[in-house]
Write a structure and sequence with these properties.
Elements lengths: L2 E5 L2 E3 L5 E8 L7 E7 L6 E6 L6 E3 L7 E6 L4 E6 L8 E8 L4 E2 L3 E5 L2
Parallel strand pairs: 2-11
Antiparallel strand pairs: 1-3, 3-8, 4-5, 4-9, 5-6, 7-8, 9-10, 9-11
């Protein structure tokens, strides 16, 4: 069955960096647009970044543009989110999402930005 497994979250100081990974299985990874979302406590889930199936099309939320970079390695069935210059307001659970008629979510990975 379809599985998305995120990793790479943790506690980081403001200004620091983290790289999230999401490994997909149970489907042809290279055929799908992939997204990263995040959800902070008490807030709605929001789209952070999206990448086209071949990796050539990328879009970002205004709040992360210039600080975060989405990428993918279709040979490894993996999508990444490189997060630099992290701010306390980036604290959230980050989710990987396969964009499809029937979408699919990963279980999420916690990112905490705090001194």
């Amino acid at each position: 069955q379809v599985q998305l497994v995120e990793s790479g979250g943790g506690l980081v100081q403001p200004g620091g960096s983290l790289r999230l990974s999401c490994v997909g299985s149970g489907f042809t990874f290279s055929m799908y647009v992939m997204r990263w979302y995040r959800q902070a406590p008490g807030k709605e889930r929001e789209l952070v970044a999206q990448i086209g199936s071949a990796g050539g099309s990328k879009n970002y939320a205004d709040s992360v543009n210039g600080r975060f970079t989405i990428s993918r390695d279709n040979a490894k069935n993996t999508v990444y989110l490189q997060m630099n210059s992290l701010k306390p307001e980036d604290t959230a659970v980050y989710y990987c999402y396969r964009a499809a008629t029937i979408g699919h979510w990963g279980q999420g990975t916690q990112v905490t930005v705090s001194s």
